[in-house]
Amino acid sequence: MHNIPVQSGWRDLGDLTVWRFALIFIACFAIAALPVLAVETLPLFDYPNHLARMHILANPEDPLLQRFYEIRWQILPNLAMDIVVPPLARIMPLAWAGKVFVLLILLLLAGGAAALHRTLFGRWSLFSCLAFLLLYNRILLWGFVNFLFGIGLAVVILTLWLRLREAASWRRVAVGTIGAAAIYLSHLFAFGVYAIVIAGTEIGRLWRNGTLWTRRGIADLATAALQFVIPLALLILGERGPGGGIGWGQIWRKIDLFFNVFDNYSRVFDITCFVALLALLIWGAIRRSLRIAPALMLPMLLLLLVQLAMPNRMFGGAGVDHRMPLVLGLLLVAGGDAALRTTRQKAIAGGIALLFVVRIGIVTAVWLADDRIYHPIVAALAELPRGSRLAVALPPNSVNLEQRRPPITHLANLAIIETDAFVPLLFDFPGQQPVALRPAYAALARQASPEDFWAVLVGGAPDAGGKVAAALAGYDFILLVDPVAFTMPQDPRLTPRFASPNGRLYAIAR
Asked: I need a labelling partner for 228 at 20 to 30 A (CA). Which of 122, 151, 383, 458 fits?
């Protein structure tokens, strides 16, 4: 570990008393929380789907929900939100329970980086607050909340593991086992990251000490490995979802993906932030004013090699290699350190703080604009009769997350929360969620896809074999949504109930 003497006063902003650091951290967190607190519906791509599942889990005895969905609790490596939010929903509205979970993610990521930095360098440093610049990233905008929670938890457990270096082996194993199991239940990718980082820190420490191949070194590695016995047993014995095949993207995209850490709504501003921070890190490394904790060098190298070899699709998930850059960014912030003594260095710190405030301002403005688009559609869904069956029509490539178009693909799932409706878009992948569609409604969902409905009803495509007409007969209403304004041809089977530039709700004639 690095131990750097703590300076008195504000002469070195890299050295802060715990109270001064706490005040700065709380102020940064309050600013970072503004977008979440400012809107009713979080514009995160998968989030409405996840929140709808929380409603089902929080109301297991609801007869209307039982008609459409069944709860199948299993030990799955994707349960962070499923474990945390339903209990919260018993003491607060579900919308706020979901927001608390997202704020907890932000706290784990930023707070974990700060705590790990403190453990590695022996001081509270303003440098670790760079983590706040990384919070609103492409992964969050996709709504991969279980993954983000798992990564934040992994950083916290890693910190505890390092702080217990001199503790009794049984205590380290006990804490590590509980932590590793919690990370595994949160998300499988986060568990893999944690295992690699633990292996890297332990092997790197023993290598630096020259004891890697000694009896003591082998015993230390065995102690570190013991924490993974229970999670690995759960992995081997647990239910597996569909494999979905393995596919690699283009190799040049591996470098481009590092920009995902900053990529959200203003391409020019996001590139400016990315280039400025990258230039400062390179400049600091050249001038040797930036140091990396030896404990994280080997783990970061291992994660980088994994990123280069990682496929884009595996275990039924897509964009797998999009997630590692955020992990590397957090570890670089937690494991990096720089003094802030000179006027120039303090001016740079002030400039970075300004970038953070502007960045949060942009996110808040965009989220408020998206919320104005969502509000009338959600209000229309709330007017549906309870227990309705709601079909959904989506344009082709609706899963593409455009930079300045509101993510609207899963918005229909909010009808599950508002009126206990059946919506065929609910995530029910075996081995990934503890909720499934009842067989009759799973069959209805398979009859025609949202893209099939769109092609026939909006695009005017022929209804081959009458499958769209047959599927429509199984629903009471249909919602058509598009991130861009669209027009809808008249159809005698559909009676208008609501219309906005981005959404149309129709009752289906019998």
From this structure: 122
- 109-160 tens-digit pLDDT: 999 999 999 999 998 989 999 999 999 999 999 999 999 999 999 999 999 9
Please choose, from the candidates 491, 396, 411, 407, the residue with its C-alpha nearest in 3D space to the C-alpha of residue 452: 396
pTM, full prediction: 0.93
Residue 125 contacts residue 337 (beta carbons within 8 Å): yes
Residue with tokens 């081997």: 236
For residue 135, being part of any structural domain is answered with yes
Most confident of 98-112, 122-136, 399-413: 98-112
Is residue 65 a part of any domain in this protein? Answer: no
**What digits encode the pLDDT tens for the residues 379-398?**
999 999 999 999 999 998 77
Integer CA distances (angstroms), 20 to 87, 335, 348, 374, in order: 34, 21, 19, 40
Extended strands (E) in 385-434: 390-393
Q: Is residue 412 part of a domain?
A: no
E-assigned strand segments in 167-323: 290-292, 313-314, 317-318
Confirm whether 289 is domain-assigned.
yes
Cβ pair 214, 316 in contact under 8 A: no
How many domains, the chain? 1
